[in-house]
Amino acid sequence: MRYYETQGLLRVERTPSGHRVYGDWAVDRVIRIQALYAAGLNSKKIALLLPCMRDTDGAPSEIATPQLVTELATERDRINRMITDLIRSRDVLDEVIDTASDRLRPALVEP
Amino acid sequence: MRYYETQGLLRVERTPSGHRVYGDWAVDRVIRIQALYAAGLNSKKIALLLPCMRDTDGAPSEIATPQLVTELATERDRINRMITDLIRSRDVLDEVIDTASDRLRPALVEP
DNA sequence: CTTGAACCTGACATTGGTGTCAACTTTTAC
DNA sequence: GTAAAAGTTGACACCAATGTCAGGTTCAAG
Hints:
Two copies of one chain form a homodimer.
Chain A: H1 2-6, E1 13-14, E2 20-21, H2 25-38, H3 43-49, H4 66-104
Antiparallel strand pairs in A: 1-2
Chain A binds a DNA duplex through residues 2-3, 15, 17-20, 37, 42-43.
């Protein structure tokens, strides 16, 4: 989370002596950040994107610029490809698992 | 691909003088390897998994051991979580994009 | 007050697949 | 035959988020 802070992803309150104070909102925010990292976005894009996201209760605090929109559209397309590839890989795993499982209990299907 | 070779993912023929000879099958295999990497598997699991996969035309050359099956099932579950998270992130991106796009051409929806 | 726990900063290691470079050998084209 | 192109090996750098450690400050309980 210190790292997130340096990247401008998390603005954290400080107690007068310098200790960080995390509000409840920080939890959701960290979860969102990690999801975006997992989706392949880098710190910079996330930093630009976060303020444009709708918060739990409110409207976004910023509107994405046209430049950012095209970048995000590119990311979205990449994520879509990622999803279809993952589904394919998952299905391959399922097939391997099923094939092996069939061999493990052949009695169940014998006449 | 040299790296894949060292990890036991690609067995490559050699010409007498040592040059690598890649058959057509290598293309599909590399694509599959990269898909599995993208799905978060590491070299070792992929090396165990590959021989259990059905090839383009033939049956798998090996059947996964029970140990491997449980590992693969864990990976599959992780991939499933990955997919749902990615879908969520993609939808978030879509929302940000749509919101910005609505702002860019408001005339189209004005009365 | 004192002591232990928790926090701060800054520097550094880790990860694992990928990219790059040098020095050398083999192939290919003319 | 010769030169350019492309292959080989091995060593090393890179990325970027995360983890860890040391030395010093602050907080909280007794």
